[in-house]
């Protein structure tokens, strides 16, 4: 198959270019910036048009706020019957205009969200797929060994407000609290295995692209609501602590602990200890 | 050496009893409750007195709020020149009366804090040691291959307000937010590698003893202050999000990210991916 990757110098663009090259596809890339180091087997085109016009698959891996403009620009060059893949982390209100732009040309939009960063080994790929059976079927053909989770657009964004937005904001706040308080180095030194694993998770969230982070926060309509719940929970615990309410704190702990099986908790503890 | 473990049926009591048995010490345990399954090589005494009166080392591993009462009760049976070890997670105001109770009998207090739970393999032991060189030296004799971090009482409690209290409260709030929102099972299903590692860390914090959790919160005089900083950080981010301030969010992210080396962040990302 002929595959075009738009944004082929970026981290996710490079990841998918390598993936399709390894599959044996003929892969053409295009990017405004030249790549830091080239992806082996990837041919570079001089324009969006040149990359896309003979492609069966066009994968768009540009910064989220630019996706719609890039898709509109490329749409007139799409072959009839081809598939355009968009991989944004928030589907929000952009999916309808994207679908419209693509369908006008007789091509088809496949909206997926890779639930991993460019550091993932290819074996462990997991995608949200927006849409129904036929979308799952096309995603399955392209990524046969991956985990595919069908979701509605709204369901996806709501889930990502927890999975991405909340995890990132919580860890950002956690790290700045430590940095302004006891200091990160001291924390690492005195950390228990759980605290040390928490520090690693927090640092991992900060290893990402800052503009991707801010898009994930501001473009997701559910991020505010999720963050408010988190602030509400912390404030409730703060109230118990202010009153020195041992029993209340213990009840909160037990209440949340009981929502999970003992084996889940113990398994997590073992996993966390193995990280250290 | 003769070692007595008070609270030998509890998780940490069992851990240390096994440790000293494995070292070849003669170990006697005492507990109000009989053990669920006995520690191999451990002899059980019928009273605190019987356990302690001929011991070179008496290790107290009872619930934190009971430590002072148990130490006062046992102190009159301590041999002159023996060492009483206390392992509380918060040193607070109890260290001075503990030291007094022990020193009256000609014994010596060694105040340490094992920075690991009973699930730790023995190779990876890390302890805070409250005090100076002679305390470090006695801890070194007992735990020769462990990491020892000398700390003042206040320095210890301040550090633990981050390492224990903040990590636990943040994860408790995080889990209840998810449980009340999208649900923990759904979260696990749609989790990215980082989110999945965060879920494991949060679950690991909930695998502990609920009363230990509440003691760690209420007995540590710095826990409130640390939690307030965290709530302050989250509220600041909430303000940026409410104004849709992409640039401000990006600056916060970059500001915290820059406090750490690129290699630290990338190393954490690799560690987190390896967990999944």
Top keywords for this entry?
homodimer; 276 residues; alpha/beta; Rossmann fold; 6-phosphogluconate dehydrogenase C-terminal fold; eight-stranded mixed beta sheet; 13% strand; elongated
Could you explain the architecture of this structure?
The structure is a homodimer of 276-residue chains. The first copy, chain A, is built from 12 helices and 8 strands. With 276 residues, chain A is an alpha/beta fold. The first copy, chain A, folds into 2 domains: 2-151, Rossmann fold (3-Layer(aba) Sandwich), CATH 3.40.50.720; 155-275, 6-phosphogluconate dehydrogenase C-terminal fold. In chain A, strands 3-2-1-4-5-6-7-8 form an 8-stranded mixed β-sheet, with helices on both faces. In chain A, α6 crosses α10 (223-242). The radius of gyration of chain A is 22 Å and the shape is elongated. The mean pLDDT of chain A is 94. Chains A and B meet through α6, α7, α8, α9 and α10 of A and α6, α7, α8, α9 and α10 of B.
Give the second-level CATH assignment, the architecture of the largest domain in chain A: 3-Layer(aba) Sandwich
Determine the structural class of chain A based on helices, strands and strand pairing: alpha/beta
Helix share, percent of chain A: 40-55%
The CATH topology of the largest domain in chain A is given as Rossmann fold
């Amino acid at each position: 198959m002929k595959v075009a990757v738009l944004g082929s110098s970026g981290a996710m663009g490079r990841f998918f270019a390598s993936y399709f090259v390894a599959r044996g596809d003929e892969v053409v890339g295009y990017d405004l910036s030249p790549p830091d180091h080239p992806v082996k087997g990837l041919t570079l085109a001089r324009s969006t048009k040149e990359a896309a016009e003979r492609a069966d698959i066009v994968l768009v891996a540009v910064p989220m706020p630019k996706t719609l403009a890039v898709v509109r620009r490329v749409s007139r060059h799409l072959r009839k019957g081809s598939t355009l893949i968009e991989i944004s982390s928030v589907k929000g209100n952009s999916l309808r205009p994207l679908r419209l732009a693509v369908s006008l040309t007789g091509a088809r939009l496949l909206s997926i969200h890779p639930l991993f960063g460019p550091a993932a080994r290819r074996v462990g790929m997991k995608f949200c797929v927006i849409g129904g059976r036929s979308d799952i079927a096309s995603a399955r053909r392209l990524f046969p060994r991956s985990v595919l989770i069908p979701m509605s657009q709204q369901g996806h964004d709501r889930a990502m407000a927890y999975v991405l937005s909340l995890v990132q904001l919580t860890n950002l706040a956690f790290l700045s609290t430590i940095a302004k308080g006891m200091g990160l180095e001291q924390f690492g030194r005195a950390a228990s295995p759980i605290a040390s694993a928490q520090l690693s998770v927090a640092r991992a969230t900060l290893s990402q692209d800052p503009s991707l982070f801010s898009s994930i926060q501001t473009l997701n309509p559910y991020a505010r609501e999720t963050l408010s719940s988190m602030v509400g929970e912390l404030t409730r615990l703060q109230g118990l602590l202010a009153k020195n309410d041992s029993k209340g704190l213990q009840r909160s702990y037990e209440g949340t602990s009981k929502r999970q099986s003992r084996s889940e908790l113990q398994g997590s503890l073992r996993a966390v200890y193995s990280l250290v």
